[in-house]
């Protein structure tokens, strides 16, 4: 009977030793994880908040009510600058309960609202980039709720401006 008891003590000792090693390893790794730099430097945080508010206000005025599906969210990406994303619908989906619209009306409304949003965001970038400390990119995600009527609508519009050239705004549309 001495052997089974000593065997259990040996297994118990190995388990305790493995737990100690695991605990030591997790403590060492937590120092690396918590020792990383702040993702958003304090001097850039006000810029991100300012741009989020400006984008929300500009797009909200162009697309009242249902137009903004997800409010603007900003982040700072090292090497790229401030990136703000927003999701908008340029036209509401057609349902049996909504007013009847012709395909031309839907296309014209979507085109006009897209132009308004692009102009307002371009003006924001031209006005504010000179006073900001980084380059800025605004990504507008656009779900197409009426693909049969509006076939040329992009899924994403990216407006970007470099800090060095605040007067030139690059606009790219992706389908």
Descriptive report:
The chain folds into 2 domains: 1-36; 45-174, GMP Synthetase, Chain A, domain 3 (2-Layer Sandwich). It starts with a helix and ends with a strand. Helix content is 44%, strand content 23%. With 175 residues, it is an alpha+beta fold. The protein has 3 helices and 5 strands. The longest helix is centred in the first third of the chain and has 33 residues, at 2-34. The mean pLDDT is 78. The radius of gyration is 27 Å and the shape is flat. It has a 5-stranded mixed sheet with strand order 1-2-3-4-5, covered by helices on one side.
Q: What labels describe this entry?
A:
175 residues, alpha+beta, GMP Synthetase, Chain A, domain 3, 2 domains, 5-stranded mixed β-sheet, 3 helices, 44% helix, 23% strand, flat
């Amino acid at each position: 009977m001495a052997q089974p008891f000593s065997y259990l003590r040996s297994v118990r000792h190995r388990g305790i030793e493995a737990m100690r090693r695991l605990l030591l390893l997790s403590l060492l790794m937590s120092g690396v994880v918590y020792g990383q730099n702040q993702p958003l430097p304090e001097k850039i945080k006000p810029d991100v908040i300012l741009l989020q508010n400006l984008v929300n206000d500009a797009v909200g005025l162009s697309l009242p009510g249902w137009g903004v599906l997800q409010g603007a969210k900003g982040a700072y990406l090292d090497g790229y600058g401030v990136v703000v994303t927003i999701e908008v619908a340029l036209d509401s989906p057609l349902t049996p309960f909504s007013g009847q619209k012709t395909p031309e009306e839907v296309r014209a409304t979507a085109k006009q609202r897209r132009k308004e949003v692009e102009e307002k965001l371009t003006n924001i970038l031209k006005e504010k980039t000179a006073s900001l400390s980084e380059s800025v990119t605004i990504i507008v995600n656009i779900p197409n709720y009426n693909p049969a009527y509006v076939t040329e609508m992009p899924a994403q519009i990216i407006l970007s401006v470099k800090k060095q050239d605040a007067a030139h705004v690059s606009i790219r549309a992706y389908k």
